[in-house]
Structure formats: structure tokens, C-alpha cells
Amino acid sequence: MSIVRLHDVEKVYPLGKTEVHALSGVSLDVARGDFVSISGPSGSGKSTVLNLIGCIDTATRGEVHINGVETSSLNDRQLTRLRHEVLGFIFQSFNLIPVLNVFENVEFPLLIGGASMPKKERAAWVDYLVEDVGLGPWRDHRPSELSGGQRQRVAIARALATRPQIVLADEPTANLDSETSAKILELMREMNREFGTTFVFSTHDSDIVGIADHVIRLRDGQVVEDAHVNASEQAAPTEPQAAAVPAS
Amino acid sequence: MILVKIAFRNLREHARKTLLIGVLMGLGTAILVLGNSVTATITQGLEASFVENYTGDLILRDARTEEAAFTSPMADPPAVLRDYVGVEAELAARDGIEAFTPVLISQAAIDVGAGTPSLAMLWGIEPSSYFTVFPDRYVLREGELLRDGQEGILLSQAIADAVRDEHGVELHVGDTVLLSGRNDVTGTKVREVTIRGIGVVENAFGGLEQISFVDANTLRGLEGLVAIRSDPAASEPAPAAAMSEDALFGGGRGLVGSAPAATGDATPGASSDGPPDYDRLLGDTSRRAEALALDNHAWHAVLVNAAEGVAPSVLAEQLEASDLTGHGVVVEDWRWGAGFIADLAVGVQTILNAVIVIIAIVALIIITNTLIISVTERAGEIGTIRALGGQKSFIRSMITLEVLMIAVGFGALGVAVGGLAVGVLNVVGLEATNLFLQVLFGGTALHPVLSPGSLVAAVIAVAVIGIGASLYPASVALRVSPARAMQRN
Fold first, then answer.
1. Do B2 and A109 touch (CB under 8 A)?
2. Hey, how many other C-beta atoms are within 10 angstroms of the C-beta on B308?
3. What number of CA atoms fall less than 13 Å from residue B58's CA on the CB side?
4. Contact assessment for residue B57 and residue B336, using Cβ atoms and an 8 Å cutoff
5. Rounded CA gap, B341 and B438, in Å?
6. DSSP of B143-173, one letter per residue?
């Protein structure tokens, strides 16, 4: 069963007296544990697809299913809860909370939801993630004291904090140099394998598409390619909740 | 906890905005505390001064009296109580009353036989009950207090000083002064009274220090409070028949009559060979004498002190519900007696409140604008929190908490500054440099006291402004879409 399914989705934005068709008849499926790239030139609809999958925008027409739930029937509170429990986000500009340090930023998603994790267990889990993304020595540093690559590592750790089933990354390497970009993508791949989390990332850089095992290409709001590659190297999908958690 | 952490660090991070909002709130709070304490002190001082010295806890007046003459020498005397005997009986029979005394309130010219007479406020009193209701409040500089049934005046020290300064006449106990008054019934009346004492009501201020106390009958004479006037049945102007010469003079003929008739009718009382018998000239004057006899029950008001443990307001409600209303009596408190002075205090309080409201509105606008700018600047952060799963309630709490933290912190600082200012003024005193301020302050200086009410008002005002100022920015923040996180570059 697909963890993400878009069926005949259309997204129209009003622009003055005219309309912009950002997506036209887009249908796609993402399997659990996939490492998916959505690529295409600027204006092709990459971000719109991510917004729809991320439940931060609604389709004009068609159906969007996330983890089996049709999102158009959900209200704001339910969509927010879905984002918190099922989804993780990595943003192009990192979007860390500037007044919180590395540890606190990673911990943040665990503090804003309804269910609370015991404090000691939470601290151990966050420390594990911070160490896992290689930022142990920067645990108490603010984002302003980190490099771009380090910030994106924090964002990856934060995206994984709630043990989401899907992590959406909107051009996660756009603001990074090529060496750092490669490291970040490698880290995402590692997390995908380690936790079995489905990763969907957008990029307009054709060079980094190759790392994905499911490639979706968009052009002018339509899917022009939807292919599974490196199938033999795909990580075996595992339950995200079964991810390694240190004993508290 | 995370909310507090984020709010506190954001405030510290944006120190300039925090300071701007905080100073506004702190300053407003300090003004509120200081202003309210000053006006509360004025009101409490006025109340204490009037209740303890002039009005007692409650005033019973005739319903026909509209304006109090307690504090204004130019006001018309109050209407005479229609049935003082009934009122007295009702009061004497009631619980919850410590003491009461009737008073007459008027004014007269005091002539010492040198120069222009001075106009002064005169209170006619029943000494025994008056000095029971107001014990130890009259400070005698010379002489002794009036006694029941004794003719005389307790002359105001201020009047005595004015006479000395203007006319060079030193007045002492035992001297006499001429009091002259005019009324519609008996015309101009002059009474010679003996000075029994010279003094002043404690803490008297403004025009109130010029009040002199006379025996009630002297004032009744000056006021024309005679049977014909104060008879309850004749509370309206006396009927023409009652005022006719025949009625007043027993139908006798006047001294200047028509010429004796040829029949030899003689003017009554005139003998043909001797001086006229003036007693007989007026005929039977008994009805006139009866009509013009002083009405010993004529009083303008009754001043009442509530018994210990009885709230004046409660007693007032009880009296209003009693048979007193049947006697045409209205129950008032000190504010009615204080008249324009109480109005003045209310006016000052109103002006202060208006200033505070204006400051609050300005502060509200500035704080709201600053917060909106802050929310706009942090739209990406807010969008990110929403994208990460933060509910709208979390965003609302975050914004409100930041404002409340400023409000509590700087509000407390404002309370401290305001309290300190009140403390300093309490020690130093606000000097009353003119009569207006003397009247307002109830003396030559005001020593404000920190009032619990002002603190409560300050806390409420800060909370209202804080929450009020955060409402619109919070609604702006709630409109930030989680998609805003994606748009951030």
C-alpha cells in the first residue's frame, strides 16, 4: 500500500483576474520506505506537490492520500495533527528557531504535540539524533553559530524527532555547496535506511537525482517521468517506530 | 515550558522592541498607581473631613431642597424639614444609629460696629446633640462651647481674624456682634448675640473655616422660621388671607387711619384727652404673635452617625425604606453635603481617568503595531512551527505569553515606581499653592497614600492592555499559513 498517493490532482492559483495551473492531473504513488526525488525546472510544480503531500496546501481537484487518509476531508486541527504525527519537514532555508540551541531545536517537535514523552527518554532520544547527525559537540550552540551544512543536519534531526513515517525535504541542498550537499543527501539516505522513513525531496539539480530510488520528474505541472531505480539497493521498508532508540 | 523559554528568549533577542513596549506599560502603570493613589487620598480625605466635621455619616434633608448649602455661602438655605418631630421620633426608635443632631444652615452679615459687615456662614445648632455627633472637632481658641438654650455665637476664628485685619477690632468672648439677615416672611432681621467662644472646626479649609455656630433660635429669627412659615401645612407660600393685615393685626386700624368720622368714632386706643394707648392701637395682636412665634421644630437637616459596625450605606438603605420618606425626607451621604467640592474631586478623578484612558489607547496602538511588526518579521518562524505540527492555540499562547511577560515584568516595575513616587510624595507632601488646591486637598498639603484600589486597578489595566494589545497580532499570527515556511528564503 502506498504511503503517499496523489490521484488526478489539479492545483490552480488565482493570479489577479487569471489563473495559474500549478498542477494538472498529477497522479503518483510513493511506497513506504522510498527515497524519492521530485525534480524539474523552476515552476514545474515541485513545491506544490510537496505542499500537498505535507498537508500545508489543498488540491483544487483530485485526491491526496497520506498514510491512507484522504486529506481534503480534514479540518485545520486534524491536518496539523497529521503533520505532527506522520510528517517531518526539512526546509531549503533550514528554518530553525533562532532562539533555541541545537538540542532544543531537535527536541521542539516533541514538545508541541499532544502526546508527551517522558523527559529522560526524550532527552536520550534527542541526544541520540544529535549525535547521529554528527552534531554532538554543537549540542548547545544556537543556529547562528553553525554553518549551513550543520544547520541542515539539525533540520534533519528535527524532522526525525517525532519518528515520522514521511520526511519531506524542499530543496534541502539548494543553499549548500556541492560537497556539503552530497554529505547532507548521504545523511538523509542513511536516515532513510536506519529508520525506514520515507523521504521525499525536491530538487532542480539533476546531478543529485541519482541518489534516489524513486524518481519523479515534473514539467509544467505534469508528471513526465515516474521511475523506480536502483531497486536492488533499496532499503527494506521497516516500521519507522522500530527505529533504534537508546534505552532511557 | 518551551513556550516560556521561547517567549523569554525572543524578548531578550528583540530587546529594543521589548523595551519600547515595556516602558510604555511600566510608565502607564506608574501613572495609574500614582494618579489613583492621589485621587483616592483626595476622596478619602474629603470624605473623612466632611463626615467627621460637617455632615456625619448621613444627611436627612427635605425632598424640596435640591442644592446643598453646606459649603456655599451664596446658596439658598435648605427647605425646612416638614415634620422634624416625626423624623426625630423615627430616628430615636431605630437601631444602628449612634447619634443624630438637627442643624440650621444659613448665612448672615456680622457687624462689629466698624466698617462693612462681613458675610458669614452660620449654622444653628442644638449644642448637646451637635457636639455628641461631632465630639472634639471644634477647637476652641477662647471661651467655651454653647450650651442648650443659651443664646450666643461660637465665632469663627477666621472671621475674628478678618475683622481684626480689616477693621482693627479685636473680638473676645463676652463681646457682642450684630447679625443681620433677610427673609421673605419677616423681612430684615437683626439680632445681637454674645460671643461665647472663638474657634474653628478642626482641619477646616477653604470657605468652611468661616462657619460660625449660633443658637438655633437666633438663626430662626434671622431666617424668619416662624410658625406661619414652617407649619407643614403652609410649606408653600402663606395664603394671602393669612398674610393680611386683618389676620396679622387682629382687624385693628392702623396709626395712620382715615379721619375720624363725624359721628365721633374715635380711633381705638386713643383717648380724647391724653396720649394714645399704643398697646390698644394694634387691637388684639395675639394671632400675630402666635403666627410670628419662632418655630422651635424648624430645622434644615438632620445629621446622623451610624452605630459602630453599621455601614453608612446599609443604614442609608434602611432609612430610605423606613417611614422617613413619608415625612418628605431624603437620605444623602457626605457627597451631597460637600456639594461642588465633591464634584470637584469627581471631576479631577474623571480627568485623570480620561488621561489614563488616552494613555492606554495610545499604548495599545503602539504595542499592537510593534507586535504586528514582530509577528510579520517572524512569519517564517510561525509558519515553521505550524508546519511542524504546532496548533493555532500554541501560536496564540506564544504571542500572548510574550506580551504578558512584558506586562507582568514592566507592570511590576511600574507599580514599584508608582508606589515609590507615592511614598516620596507622602513624606514630602503635595503643597496646595492656591485655594482651588486647598479645597481639593482638604488642607494646605496632600500626603498621598498608596491605595489597594490603585494597585488592583493597575494590575487589571496592565492585564487588559496586555491581552488587548496581543489580540490582533495573535490573529495575524494565526493567519500565517504553514506554507509560509516553504516560502522562506
1. no
2. 7
3. 26
4. no
5. 11
6. E----TT---EEEEHHHHHHHHHHH-----T
* Residue A92, pLDDT score: 85
- Locate B35 and state its grid cell: 494618579
Chain A residues closer than 8 Å to B2 by CB = 104, 108, 111-112
Query: What is the rounded distance in angstroms from the CA atom of residue B439 to the CA atom of residue B344?
Result: 9
Contacts of A81 in chain B (CB under 8 A): 389, 391
Verify that B318 and B367 share a domain, yes or no: no
On the CB side of B281, CA atoms within 13 Å amount to 11
Contact A204, A40 (CB under 8 A): yes
CB A205 within 8 A of CB A215: no
Q: Provide the domain count of chain B.
A: 2
Low-confidence ranges of chain A (pLDDT < 50): 231-248
- Neighboring chain B residues of A80 at a CB cutoff of 8 Å: 386, 389-392, 482
Are A158 and B390 an interchain contact pair (Cβ–Cβ within 8 Å)? no
Paired with B194 in beta bridges are B176
Enter the ipTM. Answer: 0.88
E runs forming strands in B244-366: 301-306, 329-332
For residues B91 and B109, state if they share a domain. yes
Low-confidence spans in chain B with pLDDT less than 70: 68-69, 71-74, 206, 227-292, 439, 488-489
In angstroms, what separates the C-alpha of B20 from chain A's closest C-alpha? 20
Q: For cell 532513510, what's the residue?
A: A192
Q: Which residue of A has its CA nearest to B392?
A: A77
Query: Pick from B336, B472, B359, B353: which is nearest to B414 by CA?
Result: B359
d(CA B316, CA B312) in angstroms, rounded, equals 6
Q: Is residue A141 part of a domain?
A: yes
Name the DSSP class of B178: E
Cα separation, B446 vs B437, in Å, equals 9
Report how far apart, in Å, the C-alpha atoms of A226 and of each of A26, A72, A77, B364 are.
Answer: 11, 24, 32, 56
Q: Is residue A23 part of a domain?
A: no
- Torsion of Cα atoms, B54 then B58 then B62 then B64, to 10°: 90
Four-point Cα dihedral B244, B246, B252, B255, nearest 10: 10
Residues B182 and B138 placed together within one structural domain of the fold: yes
Query: Which of chain A's residues have a Cβ under 8 Å away from the Cβ of B386?
Result: 56, 80
Q: What is the H or E stretch that residue A107 is in?
A: helix A102-112
Per-residue pLDDT reduced to its tens digit, B218-256: 999 888 887 665 444 444 444 444 444 554 454 444 443
Q: Are B31 and B25 in contact (CB under 8 A)?
A: no
Residue B150, number of CB atoms within 10 A of its CB: 12
Beta bridge partners of A26: A9
Q: Name, in order, each residue with C-beta under 8 angstroms of B282's C-beta and a sequence gap of 6 or more.
A: B249, B250, B252, B269
Cα Dmax for chain A: 59
- Both B308 and B396 in a single domain? no
Q: In a mutagenesis test of the A interface, which of B382, B384, B392, B489 is the best target, namely the one with the most A β-carbons within 10 Å?
A: B384
Residue B307 in any domain: the answer is yes
Distance CA B131, CA B150 (A): 15
Indicate whether B278 belongs to any domain. Answer: no
Q: Is residue B239 part of a domain?
A: no
Q: Which three cell numbers stand for residue B398?
A: 506564544
The domain boundary residue, chosen from B286, B311, B332: B332
Q: What is the pLDDT of residues A194-213, one digit of tens each?
A: 888 999 999 887 777 778 88
Q: Is residue A71 part of a domain?
A: no
Range of the domain at B22: 2-49+343-487
DSSP B24: H
Residue closest to B185 by CA, chosen among B238, B136, B139: B238
| Closest CA–CA distance from residue A88 to any residue of chain B (Å) | 7
